[in-house]
């Protein structure tokens, strides 16, 4: 049988992971990235047990774990710094086989890129369209054209291929709040535990990175595309500089030009992730808010599942139907769950915020972990261990 070929559109986490997964199954792959080089502008990223499980299936779990930090404990605090709930990373790993690992997004992208031959990576190749010719797909892009048996659209929240091939699909919807992300300089005494603090219409969190650095993230309820009239660093200090320790010290250790701000969106549910032999993957299929830390994790799951389905049959159409059946219900359920958590976290009315904090304090840590089993307890199709794929609530 001739070697099957796949063209991946988008060189982010999901696209690179899909390329690795397919290459490991004997496919010829190429990754088209519209940017002039494969780089990542970002801060930290949390890889939960399901993501490590997917990376294990790609043969990269140990590599990625060596690049990240495993925090002993984390949890949620209130505006005064009091703990509402705490999570033990050792217990997380015991229940779900893998720990929580945090690393810089650029390090994860580098590890994924290095798992592919350089000839497969084609930067500066913005895609202008996909057409069928002679029973194969032809992808037109800035560098020429590519012929493939499969096209994977992993080109993000504003996916050009989704707009072209799913013209009736709804546009991304604004979540109602904006987010800041930053990484501190190395600290002499970094906090021993990470935390997310809930305020009223505002949240701020921090978690450990390698090299005694901390990844900081914050949200605030604001109109879409709001102009703040000040720098992002100054706005962070204004909003959160008076929050309980260690927040002020962490913000002081963030370089003034190193704060990223993005409005947050998710994607309303699509009726299918597949159109012909084009499959949506990652944010292009199911962009979600970061409240559960599952955006990249679900893209990694997508990549492993897609490769498994294609390996299980030579019928590409049947394989893509299986991919859609396995991934769409699960990812859309997690998108909804993340949106609900964001709504709770952003509560601003004082009585509602007080009720939220009280309820969080009363829920046992074990119950919180148990409630996350539908998300964290994923295994690849045909894999070993506990699997709740498709059962997220």
Structure at a glance:
It contains 14 helices and 18 strands. With 393 residues, it is of the alpha/beta class.
Report the major sheet. 7 strands, mixed
Derived from helix and strand composition plus strand pairing, the structural class reads: alpha/beta
Number of strands: 18
Mean pLDDT: 95
Shape: globular
CATH class: Alpha Beta
Work out the radius of gyration: 21 Å
Instruction: Show unreliable segments.
Output: 384-393
Indicate the multimeric state: single chain
How many helices? The count is: 14
What does this structure look like?
By secondary structure, the protein is α/β, with parallel strands linked by helices. The protein has a single domain (5-172, 266-376), classed as FAD/NAD(P)-binding domain. It contains 14 helices and 18 strands. It has helices spanning 13-24, 49-57, 61-67, 89-96, 105-114, 160-165, 232-240, 247-252, 283-286, 295-312, 316-345, 350-362, 365-371, 373-376; strands at residues 5-9, 28-32, 44-47, 73-77, 83-88, 101-104, 121-122, 127-133, 136-141, 144-148, 150-153, 173-183, 195-198, 202-209, 213-221, 260-266, 274-275, 278-280. A seven-stranded mixed beta sheet has the order 5-4-13-14-15-12-16, sandwiched between helices. A six-stranded mixed beta sheet has the order 7-2-1-11-18-17. Strand 14 (202-209) and strand 15 form a beta hairpin. Helix 2 (49-57) packs across helix 3 (61-67). It is globular. The protein starts with a strand and ends in a 17-residue tail after the last helix. Mean pLDDT is 95; it is low at 384-393.
